[in-house]
Write a structure and sequence with these properties.
The chain is an alpha/beta fold and 485 residues long. It folds into two domains: 2-153, Leucine Aminopeptidase, subunit E, domain 1 (3-Layer(aba) Sandwich), CATH 3.40.220; 161-483, Aminopeptidase. It contains 13 helices and 19 strands. An eight-stranded mixed β-sheet has the order 7-8-10-9-13-17-14-15, sandwiched between helices. It has a six-stranded mixed β-sheet with strand order 1-6-5-2-4-3, with helices on one face. The longest helix has 22 residues, at 155-176. The mean pLDDT is 94.
């Protein structure tokens, strides 16, 4: 099922369909007097006397062809609250029966500019479904028609939200694809297709990775018949040579654990172990579509972690792109190996203002924070503060976790510069982040977001209906808008 929004801005009077009106928290009908007929006004006024005014929505069926929905806008709501309100309204959309809904801007009385745009954005995000492989696909298109002459949604806001939605949906699509379809070879091709949006794409295949000395990435993927890749995406929105902002994503298209094989139960969920990379790809598409006034680069490492005759073994030692050596004690701690090479490469090649990496890195972060917060680890207080502020603004929450030199002893190796897992026990997410920090060679401001609990939801969340969430696209877009454009 999908929703299309028509911005017609026509008169809001006498529309015989599903009508969405905004009212204040007391459900005052004052702004509706000139919009609906006197008989409808009297009818709804009478019903309101015995209605629960604490609700967000009240529904009044006028006749078989006309239903009026009142949406209560309470005082002191944030824009993220309006988005959540739009998402909650999705349950009132009747895909089986109705086709057209009309949202009336003339009924809005709020200090929030473009309030309806935030409401529609939440509704659109909640409507997402991934049903590409269902043989009986009863796809139905619902039209939300924006009408009224007041409180018009600006063209800039329309472009912004459309670009954001396309970026989020692209990220969700990537995460939702099964492993036999979206393997590293196919993933690289799909990213190459973003050239049409104005992104500069470079794909480093295994031959190029070997030449660069990216043995940490190559080691993870060597057990698979699929290729391993590092892909860079560049957006030059400033048309100058100023330092870019950089985003790095883990793209393990399927993670069996390798020789350190995972349990069979729930292994099918490991298709979403590339969600960090999907966020980066979705973000870059969004920046290109809205022609963001920023120089930005996205870097993703794409691999498949499989057991096999050529697979990496526990006990192997590899030399990373940075020159540092890593002892592989557990082949299921593979994401940090991919990110290690990707981070060092990004820092050296692009010399960014900052680097933010995203990864479904550890199960330990879910033990710590569940599915309410992503873990934030950083070497820079300013960048951390900015991320925490925008996380509250868009309701993609972060919680800052500790980094400290005392954790280093847990990943020091007797046989190499470091080992890829802490076998002493405890602090699993922190030692993984501490491992990554060793590959930031020039003190570039850096943040690591462990999104293992946020990338995929079995039960659905505020702005998604279950499955891939696209977590991080809105967060990082807001970071750029607020601080780097």
């Amino acid at each position: 099922m999908s929703i299309k929004i028509n911005y017609s801005f026509k008169s809001g009077n006498k529309v015989p369909a599903n009508l969405i009106y905004f009212v204040d928290e007391d459900f005052s009908l004052k702004r509706l007097e000139k919009i609906i007929s006197s008989s409808e006004f009297s009818y709804i006024s009478d019903l309101l006397k015995n209605s629960d005014l604490k609700k967000n929505f009240l529904v009044f069926r006028i006749n078989s062809k006309k239903t009026i929905y009142l949406v209560s806008i309470k005082k002191n709501l944030k824009t993220s609250d309006i988005e959540s309100l739009g998402a909650k309204f999705h349950k009132y959309i009747d895909y089986k029966k109705d086709k057209d809904y009309f949202i009336n801007l003339d009924t809005i009385n709020s200090r929030i500019e473009n309030l309806a745009a935030y409401f529609l954005h939440g509704l659109k995000l909640k409507s997402y479904e991934f049903n590409l492989y269902k043989s009986k696909n009863n796809e139905k298109l619902i039209f939300i028609n924006v009408i009224g002459s007041k409180n018009k949604i600006t063209v800039e806001s329309i472009i912004r939200f459309k670009a954001l939605e396309e970026g989020i949906f692209f990220a969700r699509d990537l995460v939702s694809e099964p492993g036999n379809i979206l393997h590293p070879d196919e993933y690289a091709k799909r990213i190459r297709g973003l050239k049409k949006n104005g992104l500069k794409i470079n794909i480093y295949d295994e031959k190029k990775l070997k030449k660069l000395g990216m043995n940490a990435v190559l080691g993870v993927g060597q057990g698979s018949i699929r290729g391993s890749y590092l892909v860079t995406m560049e957006w030059n929105g400033l048309k100058n040579s100023s330092k870019p902002v950089a985003f790095v994503g883990k793209g393990v298209c399927f993670d069996t654990g390798g020789i350190s094989l995972k349990p069979a139960k729930f292994m099918e969920d490991m298709t979403y172990d590339m969600a960090g990379s999907a966020t980066v790809v979705g973000l870059m598409k969004n920046l290109a579509l809205r022609k963001a006034k920023v120089n930005a680069v996205g870097v993703v490492g794409l691999v498949e972690n499989m057991p096999g005759g050529n697979a990496q073994r526990p006990g192997d030692i590899v030399k990373s792109y940075s020159g540092k050596t890593i002892e592989i004690l557990n082949t299921d701690a593979e994401g940090r190996l991919v990110l290690a090479d990707a981070l060092s490469f990004t820092e050296k090649k692009f010399k960014p203002k900052f680097m933010i990496d995203l990864a479904t890195l550890t199960g330990a972060i879910i033990v710590s924070l569940g599915s309410e917060y992503a873990g934030l680890f950083s070497n820079d207080d300013k960048l951390s503060k900015q991320l925490l502020e925008v996380s509250e603004k868009v309701d993609e929450k972060l919680w800052r976790m500790p980094l400290h030199k005392n954790f280093d002893k847990l990943i020091d190796s007797k046989n190499a510069d470091m080992q890829n897992i802490n076998y002493v026990g405890g602090a699993g997410s922190t030692t993984a982040a501490q491992f990554l920090q060793r590959f930031i060679l020039n003190k570039t401001p850096w943040a690591h977001l462990d999104i293992a609990g946020m990338a995929f939801s079995k039960y659905g969340g505020a702005l998604n209906s279950g499955g891939a969430t696209g977590y991080g696209v809105r967060l990082l877009n807001q970071l750029i808008e607020d601080h780097y454009e």
